[in-house]
Design a protein that fits this description.
By secondary structure, the protein is an alpha+beta fold. Helices cover 69% and strands 10% of the residues. The longest helix is centred in the middle third of the chain and has 124 residues, at 386-509. The two termini are 24 Å apart.
């Protein structure tokens, strides 16, 4: 960045100074800002910093006073700055916080801080001002201006003061600061975020792999514990035991199947006898149902008889219907003929009236003939003046062409003006959008990192919540399963006691005095047992209670295992959650802001090539000038064509004066002639057609009258026929003995005679079959007794239950054996996969640990990269330090020992050639420290500009420090420093020296002198 022009208005210490023009000074390369102590020399740089960033308004000197000496004149303190950045030039204007007179009334009010930023690349430097600001990029909002300036320069106010200005003692503090502070500064100047992101990515991937391996081993242990085994060896023993139980269960299945087969055979024989009795009941029910339908089928037989009588009446009824149809047609024909006769009579009268009207207008035909002759004479005049008309038409064509050319030139000029204005506006919008896009992208990337962290914390929190819920549920189920197991054990003891008591009571019933007891062998039986209940049922209940107890014990173990696994998962997820930083905002809030910035970036549209757009603006400006020239030429051509058209028009008008204006067009005249002749012909033709129409209508009337007479005769004949047919139908009804109403009701059944007859035959057949079925069923039963199936069914159910239980026990034993074998195979495969994963991911985990600082140097990859960049800074600084110190000093990074391990940091020492050893910075003298700070600052600015594409350090200010250097009479340090600075400005940048040392003023004559006065400081330009 090169400062171009600084303007200070009503600025306390500067009095009446309006502007400071840096162009000549910065072009000179090395320039000075001189003045005695307290004159406000460094305030010029403070004004530049304030104009750019809005900071520094509370310093003790210079711009820090921020009080206007002209408040009574309502003048506001203001600072503005023009600066170049690459091919662009920008204009910053600021009004700081300050009191001003109220607009109404007396007293003062506070003027708030306001700022503006403009692109003035297309405006001359000396023309830029509040009224000529170029393209606005940000207006009034201080934060927006500061943000855009930081995006343009690539650094903020703090870095600006550290690498653009070398103030008294300030950069020395950077020189002697510790590694941590220097790391924070260099992280802002050097973009090493790639290494930080790479380290974080590798850490995440390594953590995922490590978590996957640990989860795999823990899951294997949980699966073994869930089955009740502590190791793989115990699992092998359990497999052998399960196989033995399975073999015993197969024998029990065979025995239960034999008992079930016997019970099923006995039950099947009883079911066969039961079916005979069921058949008797079904036959009786079927016969009873059919006999109940006998009245219904008697009615069907009556319908069939009436339908047969109706079928004998069908021929006469059909004949009567046809006669009535013909009678109706005759009535319609007679009405139609009557209407036709009336219409024919009316048409004949109308034709006669029309003919009379046309003959009354025959005198108009002669008038039309005279009009046609007159228009023929006008047509001859037009033929004689055709040549003059042709000349006039050519003049009109030329005039129209000139008008079109003029309109086209006007449209092209307007289009060129509009396109130029639109493209200029688009160019300004593109510049604003480019700056805005850079700002939005930076904020978007920051929000993305914050959003990822918040999502990770939220996911971990949700995982802990889910794990807590699963653990609570598993613990509750484990307690419930434990209680059920306890109750099942108690139930087994109770059922066993009942069974033993029942068995003992059966045995006691068979005891006889003097006969030895089959259990104890004693002959005396003083207290025989007493009990109730079926011993078989009680034994079955005891066995069922045992099975329930075993099942409850298994479920208890499984529930306890699941609770243990859920507790382990909960602790693991709580540990994972503790490893995340707690976000300051919610995910939704961050995501909303992140999406807002994404939408804002998308709204800006695609990236525009500003260079190409600027070239298009220049091309449109040239096109605009060309269209203006074409418009002038079109105006001249239009004037000539207008004059020629007026002359030819007058000549033609004089020649055709006798022809009415409406008929001067040959086409119009010919059309009028044709129209008049056509009208004459239509009059003649109308009289002829009216005569023909009158004759034809009379003939039609005679024909209609004859048709009406014929229709009336036909109607009388049809009426006689209908009467005759009706008499025949009435005679047939009397003959068959059926009324007309019954006949009409029976007509629909005529087509159903066959169907009715079939249903009657089918019913008779079914009734006979039902009676035969009843007789056969009763014969099959004979004298046999009906069996009771319930005892046989109960016996089968008991046998089936026993067989199912044995089969289920066998299936469970087999499934248990297979599941244990599958578990052993699965665990072996998973252990092999985990060992492979652990071996394959070793390099990744080692690399992640090394990048994260777990290495011999205990340095992260980001710090290592910054250190490498800092080595470049020191090398660049040594190129400045060597000539300034006569080759005595050289910068080097310090290596210290931390905790017994070496660590490469950012601490700096200087190697003294005279002693051959490195020494601390604080051991240098004042002048040597200034030279070291200056060299380091210049080296830092070189590397920053080289590595950061957005940063251009065209101008550097050095504030004081020269008084600590010796002159040529001693070691000549001042001369060496000035020579190095002169070499720098000879390369690509300008250097401003802020000093009160006379020798510096003599060595660098170009610049500004600041003289302190009663009413403020005065700045004077000093140029050779």
């Amino acid at each position: 960045m090169r400062p171009i022009k600084l303007t200070l208005s009503a600025f306390g210490p500067y009095g009446g100074v309006e502007s400071i023009d840096f162009r000549d000074a910065t072009d000179a390369g090395l320039f000075g800002i001189y003045g005695p102590t307290g004159s406000g020399k460094s305030s010029i740089f403070s004004a530049i910093a304030f104009a750019l960033f809005g900071e520094g308004a509370k310093e003790e000197q210079g711009i820090g006073t921020m009080r206007s000496d002209f408040a009574t004149d309502a003048l506001l303190t203001e600072v503005s700055l023009q600066f170049e950045l690459g091919a662009k030039r920008y204009y910053v204007r600021r009004i700081p916080d300050q009191p001003r007179p109220k607009a109404r009334g007396e007293g003062q009010t506070m003027q708030p801080h306001a700022a503006w930023l403009f692109d003035v690349s297309s405006v001359a430097i000396d023309d830029v001002g509040p009224d000529c600001c170029g393209v606005p990029l940000a207006e009034r909002k201080v934060g927006d201006v500061a943000r855009l300036v930081e995006e343009l320069l690539g650094y903020g106010a703090q870095q600006f003061r550290q690498i653009v200005l070398l103030p008294q003692g300030r950069f020395e503090r950077f020189l002697v600061s510790n590694s941590k502070d220097r790391l924070e500064i260099l992280r802002e100047l050097f973009d090493v975020s790639l290494y930080r992101k790479l380290t974080e990515k590798l850490k995440l991937e390594a953590a995922e792999v490590r978590r996957e391996i640990e989860d795999g081993y823990r899951l294997n242990g949980q699966r073994l514990a869930a089955e009740g085994f502590a190791s793989s060896d115990e699992l092998s023993v359990g497999i052998a035991s399960a196989l033995e139980r399975y073999e015993l269960s197969r024998l029990a299945v065979a025995e239960a199947s034999a008992v079930l087969t016997l019970a099923n055979n006995v039950f099947a024989e009883a079911v066969s006898r039961e079916k005979l009795f069921v058949e008797v009941e079904a036959a009786d029910a079927a016969l009873e149902q059919l006999e109940g339908k006998v009245p219904e089928f008697d009615a069907v037989r009556a319908r069939k008889s009436r339908a047969e009588l109706a079928r004998r009446m069908a021929d006469l009824d059909s004949s009567l219907t046809d006669a009535r149809t013909r009678h109706g047609s005759a009535v319609a024909a007679q009405a139609s003929a009557s209407e036709a006769e009336v219409r024919a009579r009316d048409a004949a009268a109308a034709a006669s009236a029309l003919l009379a009207d046309l003959r009354a207008l025959e005198h108009e035909i002669e008038t039309l003939g005279r009009k046609v002759d007159e228009m023929d004479r006008h047509q001859q005049v037009l033929v004689d003046s055709a040549e003059r008309l042709l000349e006039h038409e050519k003049a009109l064509v030329a005039l129209e062409s000139a008008k079109q050319g003029h309109d086209q030139a006007v449209a092209q000029q307007q289009q060129a003006d509009r396109t130029f204005e639109e493209k200029s506006a688009a160019f300004a919008d593109a510049q604003r959008n480019t700056l805005k896009r850079q700002n939005l992208i930076g904020r978007r990337d920051t929000l993305k990192i914050e959003l990822d962290g918040a999502n990770a914390h939220l996911s971990a929190t949700q995982a802990v919540g889910h794990a807590q819920a699963e653990f609570d549920e598993a613990a509750a189920k484990a307690l419930e399963a434990q209680n059920r197991h306890h109750h099942a054990v108690e139930e087994v003891a109770a059922r066993e006691s009942d069974y033993i008591s029942a068995q003992a009571s059966v045995l006691a019933e068979r005891l006889e005095d003097g006969v030895p007891c089959p259990v104890c062998g004693g002959s005396d039986h003083p207290r025989p047992a007493h009990g109730t209940g079926d011993a078989g049922l009680l034994e079955k209940a005891w066995r069922a209670a045992q099975s329930a107890s075993v099942s409850a014990a298994k479920k208890d173990r499984e529930a306890q295992s699941r609770a243990s696994a859920a507790n382990a998962t909960l602790k693991e997820r709580q540990a994972t959650l503790s490893g995340f930083d707690v976000p300051q905002r919610g995910v939704s809030e961050i995501d909303t802001e992140y999406r807002h910035f994404l939408a804002a970036i998308n709204e800006l549209g695609s990236i525009v090539d500003l260079t190409l757009l600027a070239k298009e603006v220049d091309d449109l400006r040239a096109r605009k000038l060309a269209t203006a020239t074409k418009l002038q030429q079109a105006n001249s051509t239009l004037g000539d064509a207008t004059t020629a058209e007026a002359v030819s028009r007058q000549s033609y008008a004089d020649h055709i004066a006798s022809v009415p204006e409406t008929l001067r067009d040959a086409t119009v005249l010919q059309a009028a002639i044709n129209d008049a002749r056509a009208h004459l012909d239509r009059r003649k033709k109308a009289i002829s057609e009216a005569l023909e129409q009158q004759q034809s209508s009379q003939a039609a009337l005679i024909k209609a009258e004859a048709a009406l007479q014929n229709a009336s005769n036909s109607l009388k004949d049809c009426a006689d026929e209908v009467e005759k047919k009706q008499t025949a139908v009435d005679s047939r009804l009397i003959e068959l003995g059926i009324s007309e109403t019954a006949y009409r009701l029976a007509i629909p059944d005529v087509d159903l005679i066959g169907e009715l007859e079939g249903s009657i035959v089918e019913f008779d057949r079914d009734l006979a079959a039902a009676r035969g079925r009843q007789t056969a069923a009763r014969n099959n039963v004979g004298s046999a007794q009906r069996p009771d199936l319930e005892p046989f069914r109960l016996s089968c159910n008991q046998a089936q239950t026993a067989a199912d239980e044995a089969s289920n026990n066998s299936a469970e034993a087999q499934q248990k054996h297979r599941s244990l074998i599958d578990l052993k195979t699965s665990l072996a495969d998973e252990l092999e996969n985990l060992q492979s994963l652990e071996q394959a991911s070793g390099s990744l985990r080692g690399l992640a640990e090394a990048f994260d600082g777990q290495n011999e140097l205990r340095t992260t990859l980001e710090t290592f990269a910054i250190g490498a960049m800092f080595d470049q800074v020191l090398e660049a600084a040594n190129l400045r330090l060597d000539p300034m110190t006569g080759g005595r000093y050289r910068f080097e990074r310090d290596t210290v020992s931390v905790g017994g391990r070496s660590k490469r940091g950012l601490d700096v020492r200087v190697h003294d050639i005279q002693t051959g050893r490195a020494r601390e910075i604080i051991t240098l003298s004042g002048g040597e420290t200034f030279i070291a700070a200056l060299s380091l600052a210049l080296g830092l600015s070189d590397v920053v500009e080289m590595t950061h594409g957005a940063i251009r350090l065209d101008t550097i200010f050095i504030d004081e420090g020269f008084g600590s250097l010796d002159t040529e009479n001693d070691a000549g340090t001042l001369d060496q420093v000035l020579q190095v600075l002169q070499d720098i400005v000879g390369e690509r940048r300008s250097v401003g020296l802020i000093s009160h040392v006379p020798l510096v003023q003599q060595a660098v004559p170009n610049g500004f002198s600041v003289r302190k006065g009663v009413n403020g400081s005065i700045i004077e330009s000093r140029m050779q």
